[in-house]
User: Fold this.
Amino acid sequence: MAIGPSGTSDIGNRALLSFIRGFVAQYDYEVVSEEARANVLRVVLQKKT
Amino acid sequence: MSKEGQGSEETYSRTTIMVPKNIATELSRVAKARGGRTLFHVAGEGLKLTTELIKDGFEPSDLIYFWRLYKILSSMDIIPMPMKLIEEVCTHIVSMLISFSNNDKIPSDLREEAGKAVNELWNIYEKYGHQVGALVRMEFENLEELLEAVSRVSRLLAVRHVEIKKLGPPTSLS
Assistant:
């Protein structure tokens, strides 16, 4: 999932990522990897088994 | 010619358009339930709104998703706020706490507290993500349905672009 614009700082991205982690947990997903580049945050979600 | 609109002096010319019967029936029922408004008035208001949305490049059917999201999030007292403001405040606090935790001139117990506070801040973001997720799930039970809805109304959200790709097995989203 690519979300843009993400936070423009590492801290902003970290905050957004923490929020996403809590959010997707409600759907039984977890963040397995993330990458922030050029105001776009890419996260890979995986269904919890 | 007819005057309508709860005291409005606006004058409408009447015309007849065809709509599905179930929609007309539901609209009539809602109009009566809302203070006895006429179907003519409510239909006019609805079409006026729809025209504005289409003129601005929105599909009214997409905006239903936005409305569903707005209704549930309003129960959390969500307020619109510039993303930059949130980010600047967060960056300021975290930078200061990290600076404290790395400063040898500050007593070790205070440095340790500063380090813990940073982690607590991430936990707060995660906690609210969890709470918002619980609310949103009441309306969108499936994550794929939600992401599809968000991508349709992203122009109205702080997130300007959402792109979803499925990777590998059907249970993975990217």
About this structure: Residues 10-25 of chain A form the longest helix (16 residues).
